[in-house]
Amino acid sequence: MDGSARAGEPASARGDGGEGSTARFGYEVRMLGRDGSYRWTRWNTKTIPQDQLLYAVGIDISETRRDSERVKVGSWDWHLPTDRFSVSETLLDVFAIDGAPWRYQQFLQRVSPGDRRRVDRELRASLAEAQPYSDEFSIRRPDGSLCRLHSAGRSIPGPDGDPDRIRGITIDVTDRPTAR
After folding, report:
1. Residue 135: other Cβ atoms inside 10 A
2. Which of 84, 111, 112, 130 could pair covalently with 101 via S-S, beta carbons 3.0-4.6 A apart?
3. How far apart are the first and last CA of the chain?
4. What pLDDT score does 101 carry?
5. Cα 78 to the chain's mean position, in Å?
6. Is 126 exposed, middle or buried (0-12, 13-18, 19+ CB in 10 A)?
7. Ranges under pLDDT 50 in the chain
8. What is the spatial distance between Cα 39 and Cα 173, in angstroms, rounded to a whole number?
9. Is the distance from CB of 41 to CB of 31 less than 8 angstroms?
């Protein structure tokens, strides 16, 4: 493979696909890891249609690719009865806060004024309807800079069946091109 294939496109193909033939395909795919970094993997597959078999082997080729980048992804947990937000180390950095648990209103104060009502409405609606939460908004950091975030979460019911907490992830999408 020459490394010129784009993510999700075949890097090579062999075999005519006719009866009794085998086909080999290779794909290079960029995958997001648990640590927030992207890794490039090369997936080589071999199909044997007459036996209805597919063999696949993936290898990490990140060291040979220059376009690996780190994404800021963090998790959060809002415990409703105590009104406490707990966040991962990554989100402590993104929000530029110390490690003390937050309250909901403290979180909302960081959300930019133009997004604040919508974020509050969407979070509360997801809790009331027991539906997943997903929203994109800006926050103002203590140094005055704006940071664009995408957040998604799901409510977790307590013993009585009512929402007890909402847990989710937040991704810093500040550097992502915006659709016009």
Report:
1. 18
2. 84
3. 36
4. 73
5. 19
6. buried
7. 1-21, 68, 179-180
8. 18
9. yes
How far is residue 42's CA from residue 25's CA, in Å, rounded to a whole number? 10
pTM metric for this prediction: 0.60
Q: Are 40 and 6 in contact (CB under 8 A)?
A: no
Amino acid at site 113:
P
Pairing status of strand 163-172 against strand 146-157: antiparallel
Backbone angles phi, psi at 55, to 5 degrees: -110, 135
How many Å is the Cα radius of gyration of the chain? Answer: 22
d(CA 170, CA 166): 13
Give me the DSSP letters along 23-75. Answer: EEEEEEEEEE-TTSBEEEEEEEEEEEGGGTEEEEEEEE-GGG-S---B--EEE
